[in-house]
Amino acid sequence: MGGVYHDPAGIDDLYSSERTERLPRDPMAGDRVRINATTWPVEPGQSVWITWSRNGAEQAPVGAAWDYNSGGNSYWKADLGPFDRGDRISYTVNADVNAGGQQSTGPFAFTVTSWSTVTDVTGFVDNGTSVDVTTGDSAGDFTPRIRFAFPVPGRFRTQIAPSGSGLTISGAPGYTVTDSASTLTIAAGPLVLKIQKAPYRLSVHRSDGTLITRQYDPAAFRTIGWASDGATTITKIEDHFLSPPGERFEGFGGRYDRLDQRGTDVHHYVYNQYRDQGATRRTYLSVPFFLNSAGYGVHLTGTRYAIFNLGTHLGDLAGFTVDTGGGLDATLDYHVFTGTPAEILDGFTAVTGRPQLPPKWAFGVWMSANEWNTQAEVSAELANVETYRIPHTAMVLEQWSDEATFYVWHGATYPAKPGDSKLAYGDLTFPPGTAWQDPKAMVADAHRKGIKVILWQIPVLKEHFDTNPSTPPQQHLNDKAYAQEHGHVARNATGGPYRIPTGQWFGDSMVPDFTSAAATDWWMSKRDYLLDEVGIDGFKTDGSEAIFGRGVRFADGRRGDEMHNAYPGSYTGAYNAYVRSRRPDGTIFSRAGTTGAQTTSIYWAGDQNSSFTAFQEAVRAQLSAGQSGVPYTAWDLAGFTGDFPSAELYLRSAAQATFSPIMQYHSEKASPGVSEARTPWNVQARTGDTRVLPAFRRFANVRMNLIPYLYTEARAAAATGVPMMRAMSLAFPGDAAAAGHDQQYLFGAQLLVAPITTPGATAKSLHVPAGEWYDLWNGGRCTGPGTKTYHAGLDSIPVYARPGAIIPLNLDAGYQLGGEIGNSVDTYTNLTFRIYPSGSSSYAYFEDAVSATRTITCAENWAGHTVTVTVPALTTTSTLQVLSTKPASVSGASARASLAGLQAAPEGWWWDPAQQLTHVKLPAATGDRTVTLNGVDKAAYESEFATGTGTTTGGDHPGYTGTGFTDGFATPGDAVTFGVNADAAGEHLLRFRYSTTVAATRTVSVDGAVAGTLALPALADWDTWGTATLATSLTAGPHTVTIAYAAADTGGINLDHLVVARP
Question: What residues does the CBM6 domain cover (predicted)?
Fold first, then answer.
């Protein structure tokens, strides 16, 4: 008999169990308890049995049955049976061979728990800053107390103490308590809590009496409950609420499978799930917070494992259960926020930490590939950026280090230093022919090209070596020894160094303890030369989902059950503080986290396949992260592993990433035979699709055009917690039809984005919220609420500007979206405000050159034929692009005959017929300016974007507006139908712009009813355009206007557009 082994809790992995565990790990009353064990070597004659006691009384031994052999081990199982609440079981696993050579392991023990619940209210105490409510205990063991506190208006905090001890929270005074025979009422500003006394049941109301939510009916299922033995331990605490059908539960961190988690059990558990996160329902970024469509949100304050049961146990029951660590003074502490989703996120991030604004350069295009592991390759890729004229602002290097210390460039030689010392750049020698010849010069070259450099990191003291390097360098051995000796690593239950479980990523390695200031300072000091001398700009902080086992110990007293979810935050927090202290304009780029992740800046969605399924999941993960207070997110566009992406997947992904918080591409393979890099030039070379480079170039240019908007919106997210990429339910909480659309979103406050995420699709059916929305690319319009089918090639993406939108842009000399402006984020070629007038609107633009918020306003008066824009003080020349018909004049500006004339002048205005944008160029100024466009109407509805019957689109006659005109409108039955929107009820003029060489007529209908016959007089030639007008009365809102060649009509025409004007 070589030995016997049993580990009751294994590594405490939620998603797997060891072959030598106790099942269940923490038995409750009625559970059948199975003991699993292994012996070695495999040999005949072995026996395994369990000796055990129950509440101190010895029990008859239980024999274990042989289960199977694997490798050199035999595996055994023994059934101890079910137990009762309060039972204390001690057991030892024994083994021998042919009744000799006995070996044993143990003793092990567990205490059996069961669920108890609150009963009637027995009293309350007003503490002045909180209220304690005392209840009975269904088991009769404890005197439970529930504390309510009101930190700020619209929010309350609850702490549940089953034993009555451990209450710590407090809030603000100013609430009132009213006690009656049946109800205890606590009124605090906009909230009223009503507590039914017999039995205890909480309901939450607005001050006007509207019910927000209430606990579940205690006659049907427990409200507040806890798992306990009744004397020595409380292991779980839970609360349950009534959830009527249709309520949505969204948030929970980065969730890949769906936005609304109703009908599922959501695990609060950070996990390194390589690929297929949606199918496995696992996540790197787990936040114990949700938004409920009824107008409230809940945040659990702890970091231990929790499960949210959302209509799974009972269809109308939603609850949460948290692990406690087992103390008798254990509590469940949670916040309830009320209001709109935006208000709730504002409150949530006020409690858990405001998002940290990334540096401005982070909003450009990032490039990364694991295979870039030499200076020659990096230099070649930097050259490609310039050769192909595709702007980038950041480069991530993953395979740069020795894969041992993770702070020394691989291939460098140097004298090893003691573990308490750090290397300087001057200590490193880069022999000829090795990977890196002069990293400092390489980084400087990247900086000259406007590209920041990020280096990959992992929080481990690596144990196993195969290649790169094949043996651990002496410096690494020195560091490991020093870290162990000085307590800089996490510890196991017996006080030795904790090691990542075998089979996990970097298995058997030790991990630095970032809860120790000394350990953190030591670890980070090793990287000083990278920032101080080489000049890198931050770190890609990968990994950290590595803490398994309740016995793991950290310097601040926390154990593995708390640190499994919290360790990523200690890691990213340490790196973030370090980078910010040495490089204020630096950043980190992270994968794993939990509550407060937003305070360390940017997260990406982890390891995903190159597939449309992963694409869809990444969009959901970004949206749900945003709903959880994490606004700065990315994914490896088009995926980073698996099959090489098709041109279709690549360009659809690039289009979406252009309109996401962070745009970056990355590939996994370290040494592929053929490059796997997701650079646009490599994707074009690999796929043979020559559309890739020009389309990606345009997207990258648009990304740079958007920098003023992106940075302004990012600052707003940092101030409020409202994400840049907003799920439809968050952006439009009053639009029930919008919530289910998880492949479209509001990007910032102004842009509705609907990426095409389905393979083979050439169109997108998107939900359009209320109002008239404007196509960002061509000014075409649609009115919601409703559904729009949008056709988009691989070089485009459906994007609409909201009614009244004001969008700051950096445009090229021709004022074209997608025009080349380079990769500078510090200076703008043409600061432009694109304005889509609708009512009165404003936008708070951040002028970062002087760190000032500048508010620009727009008010249209279509009845008076004016649009007035108030332009704030700005330190640079700026240009307005106002969507309208051609003005008669613009106040304070000189008319210019052409774009060239506007470009050459210091000020002036010019109307662009192709885009129907009035350009108003303004010099810098120290005060507000008022610009009025006179003699204008709402911009025309272009016929090429209308619905044609029997017609085509032409462009062979100059002088049209937009991108073309309706051609072939020449035979009975032909028609063009416009979707229009009347901003106010009353008389309107329908002005049709047309050309014809013969007198013609057409029948005009509004909403299917004939409004009249339109006479279209003959013009000089087909290159001459005229206007024909029909007066009609319209109600406010959307309408259809059809101009048709009816049976009685005559003459062929070309149709340019329709203006819906006020008299």
Answer: 939-1061
